[in-house]
Request: fold
Amino acid sequence: MRSRRAAPGRPRHVPNTSAVAPRDQVLNAAAELFVTRGFAATSTREIAERVGIRQASLYYHFAGKDEILAELLQRSVRPTVDKIEKIEALVPPETHATALYLLALIDIRTLADAPHNVGILYAQSDVTNSEVYAEFQHTRRELVDAYGRIGLQAASVDVTADIDAPELGEMLMHSIEVVTGIRSDGTAMTPQRANRIASAVLRTCDVSNETIAAAASAAFELLAEFHHETASPMAESTL
Reply:
């Protein structure tokens, strides 16, 4: 889907006092409405009113509601997918267990930073039936493949003999997506919670506790290299 180029909009209904870019303000408002009211029940007029702009001005940033949804869905996976190559390039000298732990930490942060917990939109039928959902699924598949590939390399012999990469990838992704449920309960995604989730991912691969501890230590040090690439102007996470 082709995005519209941002251009100066018409005068705002409400003066813009926010440091957040207008395009991100639209995304933030849309995310809140999609999550609380549903995608189908939200109009572009309501999104524009939430931002404080005229509906016509919204179309300077997005061609329509589907394009807004497409970007919000991508923001819940794309920041992690864009780092897969860099993560895998760390091995060696890092271990596959460290790479998997690091991938999990970055993915947890991506979901924790996604505006207004947009990960819960995955389960809404009006979203899954939208035209843009297939594109999101393609990006998500890249992430599933990475989890499966790295996970099998880190896993014990018993695990590799019993499960293939696509199935393992889905299992590990579901372990990470618990973040959306935690956010729904209003619980902050602290580093301690992130550590427990990432450790659970490695335990699914039957990685020993000693190896998990070493992977966690190395991954937390490496995470600083990815911090500036992961920060979001709409981030709500403390991770």
